[in-house]
């Protein structure tokens, strides 16, 4: 836990970086340098417990990415471009403010014994929540692959409802002050 709120400009120029864990910081979409999503060797990206409201579409450039952890942020949307991450085997987006998923997520291979899709603790629209309650992540994936959902999603982009409120993050580890000794 570093409490980072911005990354240095040259951060995206690491040529052999495979695993990057930036969990428990104060990062958001404006904190990342322009070349961040061009780390071609990156296989695992951990951005959980930060302050992201959106994931830039440039995420599609992380072609070798297998694990993406965005849990416990403030995500309102997932970009359509995420469907181009064909090597992705784990997607952790639980604990955000997501109400819908782009149909392109349905193109990903995220269901099975060696894959992980975490969706819980989001204020999903009723049709997604019903699928999740009935059949878990498999039900949601089947639903977002349907023509019915693609039609719904297209209309949902035009008719947006109220933005879900931010969650209270006072208990978030990166927000806590370092423990000070009371010794005299």
TrEMBL record:
The keyword NAD does not apply. The keyword Repeat applies. Residues 11-109 form the Disease resistance R13L4/SHOC-2-like LRR domain. It comes from the Eukaryota. GO terms for cellular component: cytoplasm. Keywords: Leucine-rich repeat, Repeat. Residues 166-178 have a biased composition (Basic residues). InterPro entries: Leu-rich_rpt_typical-subtyp (IPR003591), LRR_dom_sf (IPR032675), LRR_domain-containing (IPR050216), LRR_R13L4/SHOC2-like (IPR055414). Residues 160-184 are annotated as: Disordered. Signal peptide: none annotated. This is Ras suppressor protein 1. It comes from Haemonchus contortus (Barber pole worm).
């Amino acid at each position: 836990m570093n409490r980072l709120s911005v990354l240095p400009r040259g951060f995206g120029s690491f040529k052999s970086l495979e695993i990057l864990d930036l969990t428990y910081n104060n990062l958001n979409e404006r904190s990342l340098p322009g070349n961040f999503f061009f780390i071609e060797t990156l296989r695992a990206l951990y951005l959980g417990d930060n302050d992201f409201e959106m994931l830039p579409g440039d995420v599609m450039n992380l072609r070798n990415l297998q694990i993406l952890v965005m849990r416990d942020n403030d995500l309102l949307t997932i970009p359509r471009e995420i469907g181009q991450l064909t090597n992705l085997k784990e997607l952790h987006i639980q604990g955000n403010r997501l109400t819908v998923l782009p149909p392109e997520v349905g193109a990903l291979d995220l269901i099975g014994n060696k894959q992980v899709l975490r969706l819980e603790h989001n204020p999903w629209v009723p049709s997604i929540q019903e699928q999740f309650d009935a059949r878990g992540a498999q039900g949601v994936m089947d639903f977002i692959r349907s023509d019915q959902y693609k039609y719904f999603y297209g209309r949902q982009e035009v008719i947006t409802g109220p933005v879900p409120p931010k969650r209270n993050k006072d208990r978030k580890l990166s927000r806590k002050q370092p423990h000070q000794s009371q010794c005299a």
